[in-house]
Automatic annotation (TrEMBL):
Domain ABC transporter substrate-binding protein PnrA-like: 49-300
Protein name: Basic membrane lipoprotein Med (Substrate-binding protein (PBP1-ABC) superfamily)
Gene Ontology cellular-component annotations: plasma membrane
Keywords assigned: Lipoprotein, Signal
Keyword Ribosomal protein: no
Amino acid sequence: MIDPSELSRRRFMQLGLNVGAAAGASMLLPGLVRPARAALPGISEEEAVIAFGHVGPITDEGWTWSHHQGLEAVKAAYPKAKYLEVESIPYSADATRTFRQFVSEGANILFSTSNYGDFFYDVANRAPDTAFLECDGRTLGDNLGWYYVAHWWPTFVVGVAAGALSKTGKLGYVASFPVPSVYSSTNAFLMGARTVNPNATLQAITINSWFDPQAATQAGTALIDNGCDFLFGIMDEAGYLQVAEQRGVWAAMWNTDIRRYGPNAYVSSIIVDFKQYYVEQVKARLEGKWAPAGTILKMGAGVDRDAWGAKVPADVAAKADAVRKDILDGKFNPFTGPIKDSTGAVRVKDGEAVDDAWLYNWDWSIEGVTGVGS
């Protein structure tokens, strides 16, 4: 079995991206559509077989639930199509078997809602008439595209609120694996907090899972015991939010609004919404206009912050929202150098602004972050 962190690192090496845009509408990265491959031929709605493969359970109220809502939106738009859906696909040869089964059942378009690397690509290479799309992927093929969300922008905004709310300046983070999505999340969060408290730090605990309520609960408890008074993370469930509620500290979440598990602790969440994207991709496939591309959904169009928690002071919300507005208006790019890594070395020069493609592939921790990697 290949560790998912290794899969992500492999993909990171397979495609170096160097283009991007400021926050706003969804972004199609130019130069990533392979012009040698014509669009796949159209099919009728009645002929369509649409498959979704998930990393977790659709009841997680997190990442997989959000993708399932996208599937439900496609069903509403195209009720005559046939739908296939499998939850909790492991990172192993079982994934390849599941994706092959989708193809054998006639899938015309197949979405992998997490990154499965070679387990996915091997199937795509053998099924040229099927459109394959991998969430958090980095590889393009004649019939293979990828998509993701620019979560680092709303994460920076929530970080601004964290900097204002934390009394100790010690922020805690429950991490899954040392992969780019975690680096960009931890880094953006601390950078936002440091606009309010330049001395803020972030301690992460990596639990090697996207969905493990027991491990997330234990990590949240350990972080608070170490003095953290604001918890954040990239989990698909509410484990550490419940700990924050019990211990009287703040917490921000990922994927969906799950404030009911910690109404006093809840600050916000990084909300993802794939519904429009999925409907658009299926529409293109049916009309014979689908071609492989890499797409990053932007803040305000696929990802954003949730409504502020009931206990968040109005002045804190206003401060963070002013930053959000400036980002959306193109007036402010918080990811501008100098940016130092955890060793103190300057990795982004003074005045240099990095873009979404760069942020999508971030693979090192900034100064002040511990527990993820160098």
